[in-house]
Design goal:
The complex is a heterodimer. Chain A has a two-stranded antiparallel ribbon with strand order 1-2. In chain A, helix 3 runs antiparallel to helix 11 and helix 6 runs antiparallel to helix 7. Chain A is mainly α. Chain B is of the alpha/beta class. In chain B, 32% of the residues lie in helices and 28% in strands. Chain B contains 10 helices and 12 strands. In chain B, helix 6 packs parallel to helix 7. The chains are: A mainly alpha, B alpha/beta. At the A-B interface, helix 9 and helix 10 of A face helix 3 of B.
Chain lengths: 323, 277
Amino acid sequence: MKARGPALWLTAGAVLAGCLILGVSVGGVRLSPAAVWSGAGAEGETARLVASIRIPRVALAALVGACLALAGAALQALLKNPLADPFLLGTSGGAATGAAIASLLGVSPLLSPGAAFAGAVVSSVGVAALARRGGRLDLQRLLLGGLIANAFFSAILLGVFSLASSETARTMLFWMMGSLADASPRKTLALLPYAAVGAAALLGSASRLNLFSVGEENAAALGVDTERSKAVVFLASSLLTGAAVAFAGVIGFVGLLVPHAARAVAGNDQRTLLPLSALSGAALLVAADAISRAVAAPSELPIGAVTAAIGAPVFVYLLLRTP
Amino acid sequence: MTALADRAPSIRLEVRGLAAAYGPNPALRGLDARIFAGEIVAILGENGSGKSTLLKVIARILPPASGEVLLDGRPLSAIARRETARRIAYVAQSGDLVFPIRSLDLVLQGRAPHGRGFSADSAEDRERALAAMRACDVAGLADRDASALSGGERRRVFLARALAQEAEVWLLDEPTSGLDPRHRIDFLDVLVREHRARATTILLVTHEVDLALSVADRVLLLREGRALASGTPEEALTPAALRDVFGVDARVDRDASGRRRVVWLGRAASGDGPSAG
């Protein structure tokens, strides 16, 4: 019924490659890919220098985008709800608060994914507790719980923000608005293991998520230990979200937008949808980052503003279509 | 039937003192029942009497608060979930789908408990799924989006999935509610035909007393989470029992072709029947 097989993956790979090249080329200084590649002459040297700053940033954008999109796709299937997203469920807010508190306490930035993961898990557990009825998760209340968690965590961040010194305030702003400006090779590498573990857990759950996407009772009746699967998917999504937020702050709507677009292209089989969402999420965030640098060069728009500008209308569209 | 009656029928499912609740609301309060292999049992009772809950506990969707369900003498709690799903198929009341899914893929989900890691789309799985769809007269819908099918078509696609699951017990929650007469007849034809072909045991929750009279070997009457009576439709569906279960006066008579039918006469005058609400 939908696009499958090698053509799909070649196209997705080509789109991502195109976005990566665009991401390295675009910005305050425009670079030609050829100059970056050859590195010859004065222009080439400048190109290499600028690229050495941009490449880690583009790589971080790709990883963060992949993490958020993968988490969103898995949550949508788990909750049988196309509006589920780590941002809307309050997981990102919890992660940002965790990372912000760790940063206030002087924890090394490279360990901040751990703190963000802790925050994301606290948020997930809190939201799940709100949604728990008679020993089971009520999926409607879960979305409502996410709304409450978001309000709660932004209140904490805003409170800290208003009391903080200007230097701390800048950091707080980073968590709240999302930014890729502080990218470095070390950060990108530090993100990798978290992303790998979370992605492996979700991709390994793809067949179970297919059963969940028809309904939780459906999955249970077909022999899935649903409580265990929900725990795995929530923890893995929290890990991916925490890792993304720790190094890039809260970037909304990626987890909402990307799986929706990927589903329109390739259908709802999670064994295809999850990896395709990861690739497309990487491409989208790299492109959004390029836009954020190009539109108002030499200054930058916050990346979260770019994704929200694309994502909010799509959210409204999805909301109107959801029965 | 006569051939079966010579042998002692084996008990496929036994429900002992079963209690279950949704949060603080008890739905089953100590239910006992026996379901024999190969029979169709219709479960009747008013809204909130625990009919659907009983199916959900047997399908292991809802954990029981106390009591147990035995499948061929073994407690479900001692059987792996996946094995339960290979032996018991559940067809939900509302098969509403949020995401698009090809009908064949939905039927293939019935193979999930048989496959490794819940993934099942080997050539053999596909052949079994398609055979099940042919048996339910929905093979022509295999490539259609199941979320866009009519209610009657979708019920049969879900029934095909139960066939593909190759379970010996089918749990059907109000399988014909909301269907127009033609789709209802189509569905019941397929159901009875496949039941006979596969000698499955069927538990069928319904509000339609006539459906129980026409297809069930036995009826189980529930009231407030307990079994009120059980027996053949002729034995169990008496005016007194209908009044106890539904709080409505009824007459049971035969139509011109000799089939039994229930004629509802009106609310029971004095009320030990269920109260309004």
